[in-house]
Amino acid sequence: MGSGVSEISTETAIIGGGQAGIPLARALAEAGRPIVLFESTHLGGSCVNFGCTPSKAMIASARLAADARQGAHLGIHIPEVQVDFLAVMERARSLVAEAVQELDASFAKADNPVLVRAHARLEGRVGNQFLIRAGETVVRANRVVLDTGTRTARPPLLGLNRIPVITAETWISLRTLPCRLLVLGGSYIALEMAQAFQRLGSAVTVIQKADQLAEREDKDTAHELRAALERDGCRIILNADAQRVEALESGVRIHLANEHLDGTHLLLAIGRQPNTDDLGLETIGVRLNEHGLTEVDDHLATNVANVWAVGDIRGGPAFTHTAYDDFRVLQSQFIGGGKETRCPIAPYAMFTTPELGRVGLSETEARKPGKRFRVGKRLMTESGKARELGKTEGFIKVIVDAETDAILGATALCEQGSEIVQLFVELMNNGATTGTVRSAVHIHPTLSEAAKNAVLAAANGDVHRGQTSVVP
């Protein structure tokens, strides 16, 4: 090796300091195993740096502003709601800074794991070890864990590379409120951001290529989400095929097939691209699918022995909590007996108003295999607690196996939907049937009563089979 290059030999090298890599590095270090952790930017991954932590802080501010404007419905008259956008953003950034500082400090206290602050790239093998280069550091490792996450996907849209855009990674640097915000995309990040910015004072237009928002969800869910955003003042354009974009003196213009839209800012949120294209994976033969995701088994092992992939790049659900569950699986592989596998029940949420909490089969998915099932649905207008809160938007829907009465899936599109869905997560993880819920006593008045009533409706409802018409 050349002068100035340091060499390290280790048992495990973890490339990426995200929500799987960090706890795994700590657990292995505590077990006395030599570890090298590579992170080119900031510890914590997308969740801490630009995702969960700051975005939910901004959404909290936006929701408070919206509630204040609606105070008259509860007899509270607030003459004027003033949004200090800079203060909203400074609060979000301060939460990020605090979390990152805590992570940095925790890794500075010990020599193991070794933290290398540089972009890491595989360079083949030396004997039975993998060779990894990161700046002036070369590491030889017996095994490798990939935790490099994803970034905003950029479509081949004419003119896009010539204009500044806001992305999931860069929005947190904003210091002035976008006046007229165009949002290209209609899924989870796009909808959370669109509603939040509208509530904070932007005029937002959502441009979605598909024929519904949140196209992976049931049509009734998408319809309710659209209604919610439109109540806040967002403009929604579906079936919108963006042709090209151009810079204007005052911002940006998007050309659609039959019209053009002008805005001061453009938020790009059409999907995520895995950070696997500059890792040198080809030097050791790790297979990627057509989307650039690694192919892994239930133990998160790739096709190359002693190479694992965790977090967003390994395909399947891509959330902070599923990444942390990946840590559990690899901890088992490395120091716990090797029996743990990926959890087949992975819930998720979208933090709009109403919130969307989802787990298991949707109604659309239940209709595909030809399975006999029941559907139970309760509108939140039927919930006493929701009426008392003034939060009657949405519904709770449950899918039940018609033969076994097992709960197959649930949608909680309602106030605190991300919390309500946890009830179904626990029930499904324990193989519970509708009878479990039927015999349970729920506190009154609570939103969870609506969840129980949806389960009872499913237990007593009509039997449906895949490919039948949609239940009203």
Structural commentary:
This protein has 472 residues and is α/β, with parallel strands linked by helices. The chain has 3 domains: 6-151 and 274-335, FAD/NAD(P)-binding domain; 160-270, FAD/NAD(P)-binding domain (3-Layer(bba) Sandwich), CATH 3.50.50.60; 354-463, FAD/NAD-linked reductase, C-terminal dimerisation domain (Enolase-like, domain 1, 2-Layer Sandwich). Helices cover 30% and strands 24% of the residues. The protein has helices at residues 21-30, 45-49, 52-69, 85-108, 188-200, 219-232, 320-335, 363-366, 384-389, 417-429, 434-438, 448-460, and strands spanning 6-15, 35-38, 114-116, 121-126, 129-134, 137-146, 150-152, 180-184, 203-207, 235-237, 244-248, 251-255, 260-263, 265-268, 272-274, 307-309, 348-350, 355-360, 372-379, 395-401, 407-414, 463-465. Strands 1, 2, 3, 4, 5, 6 and 16 form a 7-stranded mixed sheet that branches. A 6-stranded antiparallel sheet has the order 17-18-21-20-19-22. It has a 4-stranded parallel sheet with strand order 10-9-8-14. Helix 1 (21-30) runs parallel beside helix 7 (320-335) and helix 3 (52-69) runs antiparallel to helix 4 (85-108). The longest helix has 24 residues, at 85-108. The radius of gyration is 24 Å and the shape is globular. The N and C termini lie far apart (69 Å). The model is unreliable at 467-472 (pLDDT under 50).
Task: Supply the key terms.
472 residues, alpha/beta, FAD/NAD(P)-binding domain, Enolase-like, domain 1, 6-stranded antiparallel β-sheet
